[in-house]
TrEMBL record:
<keyword id="KW-0482">Metalloprotease</keyword>
<feature type="domain" description="Peptidase M1 membrane alanine aminopeptidase">
    <location>
        <begin position="318"/>
        <end position="460"/>
    </location>
</feature>
<feature type="region of interest" description="Disordered">
    <location>
        <begin position="12"/>
        <end position="47"/>
    </location>
</feature>
<protein>
    <recommendedName>
        <fullName>Aminopeptidase N</fullName>
        <ecNumber>3.4.11.2</ecNumber>
    </recommendedName>
</protein>
<dbReference type="InterPro" id="IPR027268">
    <property type="entry name" value="Peptidase_M4/M1_CTD_sf"/>
</dbReference>
<keyword id="KW-0378">Hydrolase</keyword>
<keyword id="KW-0862">Zinc</keyword>
<keyword id="KW-0732">Signal</keyword>
<dbReference type="InterPro" id="IPR014782">
    <property type="entry name" value="Peptidase_M1_dom"/>
</dbReference>
<dbReference type="GO" id="GO:0008237">
    <property type="term" value="F:metallopeptidase activity"/>
</dbReference>
<dbReference type="Pfam" id="PF01433">
    <property type="entry name" value="Peptidase_M1"/>
</dbReference>
<dbReference type="Pfam" id="PF17900">
    <property type="entry name" value="Peptidase_M1_N"/>
</dbReference>
<dbReference type="GO" id="GO:0016285">
    <property type="term" value="F:alanyl aminopeptidase activity"/>
</dbReference>
<dbReference type="GO" id="GO:0006508">
    <property type="term" value="P:proteolysis"/>
</dbReference>
<keyword id="KW-0479">Metal-binding</keyword>
<feature type="compositionally biased region" description="Low complexity">
    <location>
        <begin position="23"/>
        <end position="41"/>
    </location>
</feature>
<dbReference type="InterPro" id="IPR045357">
    <property type="entry name" value="Aminopeptidase_N-like_N"/>
</dbReference>
Length: 473
C-alpha cells in the first residue's frame, strides 16, 4: 500500500501494448509465463527471473557493516533442472562475484547486466537436482525503475532495509527473481552487536559471531516469491510472543516515539484472526510486522509473514487499515501469488477489499458504503485503465487498488454473500502456496457460484469505461 503522496502520482498513462512472447511455452510451466533464456517471459518485465530450473531453497548467509555499507554474501541455491543446462542465469544486480560452484565443482561465471551467467563444468541434466553456491561482496545498490520507484537494498541511517516490488532480491543475493519460482528460505544475517536484523518467517535465535558481530537466523519454510523477502537492520525495539502456537516477532524503529506505530502493529494477530474468519486458515508459521523510519520508503509491503510499513502510515494515530491490507496479502499475494505481473489486481483488489471488510467489522464504513464512495469519486484515470491489464507503468495505480476492490464488490453483489465468501475461501485453499492467473480466478468464480460471469469481469477488469453499478442476479 502506498501513502497518499505517492498514490496520486502518475496513474493515468495508457496501458502498455503487450509484447509478443519470444519462444513457445514449456509444458508444465506457469500459465501465462513464457520462458526465455534470460527472463521467464513476463510481458511486463522481460528480464525478470530465468528459465530452465526451479529453485526449492535459498540459504543466505550475509554479513553487513552499516559503517562501510559493505556486504559479504554466501548464497546456496538448491534447484531442479527443467531442461539440460549447459549454462543457466541467476539475477544479480551489482556486487562482485568471487566464486561459484555447482554441486561442489568450480563453475565459470560471467556478468551480463543484471544477470549472472553460470557455466558448470558439465551440463546439469534435465530433472536433476543441483546446488549452486555463490560467494560475493560489495556495496549493494538499489534498482532504479523510472515508473514505479526504486527497489532493493537501501543503506539507512543506522543499518539497511532490503525491500521492493516487483524487484528487490537481486540487489543482495543471486536469485530467480520472479514470483513464478517460489522457494523456501533460510537467512543468517550477521551485523554489529547491538543492531537488530529481522527477516521473514520463524525466528531461529541469535548467536555471537567473529569481530563483535551477532548472527540472526530466520527461516521461511513455505514457498515465498523473491520480492517478498526482506531484511531490516538497525536500531529497533522488538516485541516477541506467541499466537495459536506460532511465534510473533515485530520491530519498530527506535527513532519513533512509542505510540501509534507500536499499537497498530500490536493489533496484528487480532486482525489476522478476523481475516482468517473470512478467508480461511492463516497461511504461514509466524506473524509480525516491521515499521521503518526511512524517508525513501513511502509504502508498506506484504513481505511474507512479516510486512514492512513506512512510519508515515502511523503519523496520524493508530492505523489498522494498512495492517489489514498487508495481512490480507498473506493469503492473496503471498500464499496465492501472481504468475505474471499483469495479474497484480488479484493481490491489490483483494487486499484493498479486505480493508473495506475490516472497516465494516470495526463499526466504521460498510463495504457497500466504501464501494459507493469510490464509485462516485473515481475519475477517468481509473475507468480508462483496466485493472487486469494495467500496463507496467500502472502496476500500483488507483485502478489496480480501488477499481480492483470495486470489481470484487461488484462480484459479491452479483452472486450474493454465500457464494462470494465460499469463493474467497475456495480460492485461498485451492491455490495455497502456489501461483494463479486472472483466467483461473474467473473460472473458479464461475464454478463456485454456478453462474456465467464473463460479462461482469469483462466490464470490471478489462473495460475502459465505468461499468454500470452491480445488481443481484
Ligand atoms: N504491494 C504493496 C501494497 O499494496 C505496495 C507496493 C508499492 N510499491 C511501489 N513500487 N510503489 O501493500
Ligand atoms: Zn497491497
Amino acid at each position: 500500500l502506498v501513502t497518499v503522496a505517492l498514490a496520486l502520482a502518475g496513474c493515468t498513462a495508457d496501458p502498455e501494448p503487450r509484447r509478443e512472447p519470444r519462444s513457445t511455452p514449456t509444458p508444465g510451466a506457469t500459465p501465462g509465463v513464457t520462458p526465455g533464456p534470460a527472463g521467464v517471459g513476463d510481458p511486463y518485465f522481460p528480464t525478470a527471473g530465468n528459465s530452465g530450473y526451479d529453485v526449492e531453497r535459498y540459504t543466505l548467509k550475509v554479513r553487513y557493516d552499516p559503517a562501510s555499507d559493505e556486504l559479504r554474501g554466501d548464497a546456496t541455491v538448491r534447484a531442479t533442472a527443467g531442461a539440460d543446462l549447459p549454462l543457466f542465469h541467476l539475477d544479480l544486480a551489482g556486487l562482485t562475484v568471487r566464486r561459484v560452484t555447482v554441486d561442489g565443482n568450480p563453475a565459470r561465471h560471467t556478468r551480463e547486466g543484471t544477470e549472472l551467467v553460470v557455466t558448470p563444468a558439465a551440463p546439469v541434466r534435465a530433472g536433476a537436482a543441483f546446488t549452486v553456491q555463490v560467494g560475493y561482496d560489495g556495496r549493494p545498490e538499489p534498482l532504479r525503475n523510472e515508473t514505479i520507484g526504486e527497489g532493493g537494498w537501501l543503506h539507512t541511517a543506522d543499518g539497511a532495509v532490503a525491500l521492493g516490488q516487483p524487484e528487490s532480491a537481486s540487489t543482495w543475493f543471486p536469485v530467480n527473481d520472479h514470483p513464478s519460482d517460489k522457494a523456501a528460505y533460510d537467512f543468517e544475517i550477521t551485523v554489529p552487536k547491538g543492531l537488530v536484523a529481522v527477516a521473514n518467517g520463524v525466528p531461529r535465535g541469535q548467536r555471537p559471531a567473529a569481530g563483535g558481530y551477532t548472527t540472526w537466523r530466520w527461516s521461511e519454510a513455505a514457498p515465498m516469491a523473491s520480492y517478498l523477502s526482506t531484511v531490516v537492520i538497525g536500531k529497533y525495539r522488538t516485541t516477541t510472543g506467541e499466537h495459536r502456537g506460532r511465534p510473533v516477532f515485530s520491530a519498530v524503529a527506535d527513532t519513533l516515539p512509542r505510540g501509534a506505530a507500536d499499537e497498530s502493529i500490536a493489533r496484528t494477530v487480532t486482525v489476522a484472526d478476523y481475516l482468517e474468519s473470512v478467508f480461511g486458515p492463516y497461511p504461514f508459521a509466524a506473524y509480525g510486522g516491521v515499521v521503518v523510519d526511512e524517508p525513501r520508503i513511502r509504502y508498506a509491503l506484504e513481505t511474507q509473514s512479516r510486512p514492512v510499513y513506512s512510519a508515515n502510515f502511523f503519523r496520524g494515530g493508530e492505523n489498522t487499515g494498512v495492517v489489514a491490507h498487508e495481512l490480507a496479502h498473506q493469503w492473496f499475494g503471498d500464499s496465492v501469488s501472481v504468475a505474471r505481473w499483469e495479474d497484480i489486481w488479484l493481490n491489490e483488489g483483494l487486499a484493498t477489499y479486505a480493508e473495506w471488510l475490516w472497516s465494516e467489522h470495526e463499526g466504521r464504513d460498510s463495504a457497500q458504503a466504501t464501494f459507493d464512495q469510490q464509485y462516485a469519486a473515481s475519475d477517468d484515470g481509473v475507468w480508462r485503465v483496466p485493472p487486469a491489464a494495467p500496463g507496467a507503468a500502472n502496476l500500483f495505480s488507483e485502478s489496480v487498488y480501488q477499481r480492483g476492490a470495486m470489481a470484487v464488490h461488484a462480484l459479491r453483489v452479483t452472486v450474493g454473500d454465500d457464494a462470494f465468501f465460499r469463493l474467497l475461501r475456495t480460492w485461498a485453499a485451492e491455490k495455497r502456496n502456489g501461483n494463479a492467473t486472472t483466467a483461473e480466478f474467473v473460472a473458479t468464480a464461475e464454478r463456485v457460484c454456478g453462474q456465467q460471469l464473463d460479462d461482469l469481469f469483462a466490464g470490471w477488469l478489462y473495460g475502459t469505461e465505468r461499468p454500470a453499478p452491480p445488481t443481484r442476479r
